[in-house]
Predict the 3D structure of the following.
Amino acid sequence: MNKTNYHIKFFLLFITVFYFSGIDAQELKVDYFTVSQSDITARSKPRQHEGKYCAFIKVLLASPDATFEGLIVGDVAYKSSEYSVYVHPDSKRIVVKLEGFLPLEVRFKDYGINQLEEKHSYVLKLIIERNDNDISEFKKKNIYIEPQIQLGSMTAFGAAIGGYVNHLNVEASYMMGLSESEEIFWNSTNNAEAGSPSSYTYKPSFFGGKVGYAFYLGRPFRITPQIGVGVVSLSGTESKKSDNQLDAKNGYSLNASASVKIDYLILPWLGVGVSPEYSLTLSKSDLYERVADVSSKVDGFAKGFNVRIGVYVTF
């Protein structure tokens, strides 16, 4: 139970970290900063500080959660996507902070205004710009091949091949297990138990497919929730022979999975992927069920938490 809780917590933490890593897919930028010829707020509703009248800056931003730092005088008001900001005329800059974005420093001289004037009004328009360049790179590269390692309830290595059509994802994979079962003893009636004359060890392999829907986060991040089905096959190696004619070499388990594929594009043709996944058993062959009854390791090959890590190429 404790192990299961650990896996769930790790899974949630992993998703959270990668989600917030994509925040800078959006960037807060200055569209323009200029003197306002029509706004008379600085004259009609003046404020004074240290013997000087303030300059007034109308900040256009469609978010009510921004804060401002600098030589700000009095409270900042927000209404209908407009902030009313009074600043001391000796101010050279303001800093805009908005949750989910890096702080934006606006230096007035960068926009041709070397000195603010008393009782003058200015307009600062800010925009939230989404970086679509990396998104288009993802969408252009529709096919990928990804060598993978898998850690968790079944340690394995293999590869996946898949593709994207806009947001739709289809993927097939094959994994060869590195784990193997304990030594399983069989008696003459084909019952798995300890101390009987025949024994086998079993190694798993997996073949399956998934479908998913991609969310493009910008920069080079993409998150694709997936669901899938697959078959875990057991291949037995007889380690202790007997005269009994036993058929205890092969078994299978049909399983279903839910996963989240998280991609990071390093180069236009190269990326890394991480896929936390949880699997559950749908059905088992008779042999698989008998072996799983006496081996928790074999039982775990077809269900439980895994993480696949891969490096993929696109073409």
Notes: Residues 2-21 form the longest helix (20 residues). The longest strand covers residues 221-240. The chain has five helices and 20 strands. Confidence is low (pLDDT under 50) at residues 17-24.
